[in-house]
Design brief:
Pfam families: MatE. By secondary structure, the chain is an all-alpha fold. About 85% of the residues lie in helices and about 0% in strands.
């Protein structure tokens, strides 16, 4: 049998072993991986999967970074209004906006799962229904979150923040209520487009809106002098512009003619199975985002709060930039795995998981080296305070460990989303982060001399445990069974 397979492989790959990578297909790779492949073919298979990965991840990274930059730019302009305004807006962004982002992004990962698998299975008409169903649920969540946004000042006071910070924080958050509804529409629409490998147009839209947002914020804050509320409303406006452009593309583009067939009453049927996956998705991602935001809050309760909070904030800024890059790779991993499972290609899905993880680890090694080499220069970009610079330099090795872990953990989470494991990962996150990591961080931060380094160690321990669990889950996965699960999930969503 081995000799027969060997005879078939050149025919499947083409007579020329140096033929174009683009000539290959998922079906061809799936058939090849069933057999024992000669060593000379592996480089070409890796190149094929890497090409597929970077076609998706390059633009996904751009989308992730520039969507994040909208809020980042707003906070930069707010910082020039005064220290109190910046503190209030930053705290509101971490606590209130972080809560909403966790819920919305988590719910949207269900779109990634089901639409990605539907696209792989060529059930294109189902994708538009799934997107509409997600939008209905997202808007429902936005209505509930509006109450939290409106009473954000009371919430900030309840967690121990001073009235000096809560007043501007509440003003900023109330100005972001329109953005909350824009985010409820943007999340499902972007995942809907990404699931069908439409990523370049999304990248162009994100960059264009970012440039417009920067100009508008400068005009509103500096020229018109509308202050903190003006900055918040401008951020809301920019998100609505992004939503409008996304919607026009979906409705008018020939690329979506098979996947978007117009509004349908079916969006309100078969909601319960999808709702369960949505809740699991929201819990999974919320537990992750709130964990890291909570550690920043803890730094504010340390004895030397100003220095410790500045140190944590600077390090978390660099960690966030690295995370946004890796989230682009995570999105690509989710799309690749979902598409291949939907298409009934378990071996290609497994192969994709291996390639994306090796790629991300290699990138993280480079990023980790940069953090360690430029440990002093990185802090000097944010502050000239020698005490803060020294504190950041001391904690930089821990930042480097976190940057390296970013090359594994988000990617495995992307694989979990593509496979539909959100409920399982939610339990993993609860245990690793809140039952183990957070208590350890509190003990090391408040009961030892480590202070902010102790809190960070708690974060690292939680992430290591979560990552190790996901590695075990992924390594033990029966990918043939996952193909069956994907087919069953699509059948339930069509009911």
């Amino acid at each position: 049998m081995g000799s027969a397979a060997a005879e078939q492989q050149p025919l499947l790959l083409g007579q020329d072993p140096h033929g174009r990578i683009s000539d290959l297909s998922s079906a061809t790779i799936e058939e090849l991986l069933e057999h024992s492949i000669p060593l000379r073919w592996w480089a070409r298979l890796v190149a094929w999967e890497s090409r597929m990965l970077w076609l998706l991840s390059g633009s996904s990274i751009v989308v992730s970074i520039f969507n994040y930059m909208l809020s980042f730019v707003s906070l930069m302009f707010v910082g020039h209004l005064g220290a109190v305004e910046l503190a209030g807006a930053s705290m509101a962004s971490v606590v209130i906006q972080g809560l909403a982002y966790g819920i919305m992004l988590g719910m949207a990962s269900a779109v990634q799962t089901v639409c990605g698998q539907a696209y792989g299975a060529k059930r294109y008409s189902e994708m538009g229904i799934i997107c509409q169903r997600a939008i209905v649920l997202h808007l429902g969540a936005a209505v509930l979150l509006t109450v939290i946004y409106w009473f954000s000042g009371d919430i900030l006071l309840a967690i121990g923040q001073s009235e000096t910070i809560t007043e501007p924080g509440q003003l900023f958050t109330r100005g972001l209520i329109p953005q909350l509804y824009a985010f409820a529409l943007a999340c499902p629409m972007q995942r809907f487009l990404q699931a069908q490998n439409i990523v370049n147009p999304l990248a162009y839209m994100s960059v264009g809106v970012f440039l417009l947002h920067t100009l508008l914020t400068w005009i509103v804050v500096y020229v018109l002098d509308y202050g903190l509320l003006g900055a918040a409303l401008t951020l809301s406006l920019s998100w609505w512009i992004l939503v409008l452009i996304n919607a026009l593309y979906i409705v008018l583009s020939p690329s979506c003619k098979e996947t978007w067939t117009g509004l349908s009453i079916r969006a309100f049927t078969g909601v319960w199975p999808y709702f369960k996956l949505t809740v699991a998705s929201a819990v999974m991602l919320c537990l992750e985002i709130w964990y890291f935001n909570g550690l920043v809050l803890l730094a504010g309760f340390l004895p030397n709060a100003t220095i410790e909070l500045d140190t944590m904030s600077i390090c978390m800024n660099y960690w966030n930039w690295d995370l946004q890059f890796m989230l682009g790779l995570s999105t690509a991993a989710s799309i690749r795995v979902g598409n291949e499972l939907g298409a009934g290609h378990p071996r290609v899905a497994k192969f994709s998981v291996v390639v994306v993880n090796v790629t991300s680890i290699l990138i993280s090694i480079v990023f980790t080296a940069i953090v360690l080499i430029f440990r002093v220069g990185l802090s000097e970009l944010f502050t000239s305070d020698e005490e803060v610079i020294d504190a950041v330099s001391e904690i930089t090795p821990l930042l480097a460990i976190s940057v390296f872990l970013n090359g594994i953990q988000p990617i495995l989470s992307g694989v979990a989303i593509g496979s539909g494991w959100q409920a399982v990962v939610a339990y993993v996150n609860l245990t690793a982060y809140y039952i183990i990591g957070l208590p350890i961080g509190c003990v090391l931060g408040f009961k030892t001399s480590l202070e902010v380094a102790g809190i960070w160690w708690g974060m690292i321990i939680g992430v290591i445990l979560q990552t190790a669990t996901l590695i075990i889950l992924t390594a033990r996965t029966n990918w043939n069974k996952e193909v069956e699960n994907a087919a069953a999930r699509l059948h339930r969503s069509a009911e």
